[in-house]
Write a structure and sequence with these properties.
The chain has helices spanning 8-19, 64-79, 98-101, 105-120, 159-166, 175-181, 188-202, 208-224, 237-246, 250-256, 265-278, 285-297, 301-314, 319-329, 334-350; strands at residues 3-5, 26-33, 40-49, 84-90, 124-131, 139-142, 149-151. The chain is an alpha+beta fold.
């Protein structure tokens, strides 16, 4: 989704909506068209945890981790032919004023390194802004002369936030809050699933067509379940174990990639999320990967990253999760993932299942 803002305080306030959470201790690079003071059209946003050199090192240097991050940011800008960008540093680890922060050589070194690397690849860094937090009334300051300063607008009332909320995207307090939502469960049901998984692995294997159709039927039932009686409450431990084992079949899994472009994509994500939280490792790796794949295809890089981490924690060698992780770290665009999703239609047809055409809403 492209976003449009017209003032620096509004731009910073829009960041949580565009990321899906309010970043802290982060370096962000925002690719855009236009200039500060004019209407800005925002495209790709990149974020990484902020770190500084060891205190024994010079405060005018950038550590190896941040140098690598900056080089990756610059490589993505070069590949996508980004002409202008701005950076935002969010750091709450100081009790000094923002004016004093602006003179901190650590931030100056980071901003200078980013500017140099971007310029070498054809991208002009218009400014680097520094703020302790992205919250209403929080002060920000620019790190380039002449210094600009101001306060962050209310992120909750941002026009960009409204657009994302109306589009069905939630905004969480932090990336950790999102990760918590996807953490595997330790409940009576999940323990029963672990007890059933061996029998599901040993059971007779139905045809791939039958398996795919069964999963599609389950997704259809999820779509029709009322809000006060979600389908997840009706799935037995045996059914969850059977679905988890079914998804380990390569042709079945690859057919499910097509659902990232399908009208049932949101419902499928609910099922993948539920399975990834209730299945044991390594079976949870597949639904977690499918969740990450679908989120990536719709441009939600944060959700994709968290889901892929969950998949790799369950099975570090799971090849599709590793490929998606590499694509995400390289800044591959969602369009590329959607191209991969199209291959799922061909796989489903090979299995004897014809899916309805992709929806134009994705």
């Amino acid at each position: 989704m492209l976003a449009t803002v017209s003032a620096t305080g509004d731009l910073i306030a829009a960041i949580p909506a565009m990321l899906g959470f309010a970043p802290s201790r982060s370096l962000l690079l925002i690719c855009l068209d236009g200039r500060i003071g004019e209407t800005l059209t925002i495209g790709t946003m990149m974020r990484h945890d902020l770190s500084f050199p060891d205190p024994a090192a010079t405060l005018r240097s950038v550590n190896t981790e941040m140098a690598d991050v900056i080089d990756r940011f610059a490589a993505v800008c070069k590949r996508d032919e980004v002409r202008t960008a701005i950076a935002v540093i969010v750091d709450d680890r100081t009790k000094t004023s923002v004016e004093a922060l602006g003179g901190d050589t650590r931030y100056q070194a980071l901003g200078s390194r980013l500017e140099d690397r971007l310029q070498a690849r054809g991208t002009r860094l218009l400014d680097t802004f520094l703020t302790e937090n992205i919250a209403r009334g929080c002060a920000w300051i620019s790190l380039t002369e002449p210094r600009e300063r101001g306060t962050v607008s209310d992120p909750r009332s941002s026009a960009v936030t409204l657009a994302y909320v109306l589009g069905g995207r939630a905004m969480l307090e932090s990336r950790e809050a999102l990760a918590d939502l996807l953490q595997p469960l330790d409940t009576e049901v999940s323990r029963q699933v672990r007890a059933c998984i061996g029998a599901a692995r040993d059971a007779a294997t139905p045809s791939e067509r039958t398996t795919i159709e069964r999963i599609l039927q389950e997704i259809g039932r999820w779509a029709q379940s009322p809000l006060d009686q979600p389908r997840s409450l009706e799935l037995s431990a045996v059914q969850i174990a059977e679905l988890g084992v079914a998804l380990t079949r390569l042709m079945v899994r690859d057919s499910m990639l097509a659902l990232a472009l399908h009208e049932c994509a949101a419902t499928a994500e609910q099922l993948w999320s539920h399975l990834s939280r209730t299945l044991p490792a390594p079976e949870r790796a597949c639904p977690a990967t499918l969740l990450g794949f679908s989120a990536y295809a719709r441009g939600d890089g944060v959700m994709a990253g968290v889901a892929i981490e969950l998949a790799l924690a369950a099975d570090p060698d799971y090849s599709l999760a590793r490929l998606l992780d590499s694509a995400l770290n390289a800044g591959a665009r969602p369009e590329m993932i959607r191209e991969v999703a199209l291959s799922g239609y061909a796989v489903a047809e090979l299995c004897g299942v014809r899916l309805s055409p992709p929806t134009s809403a994705r």
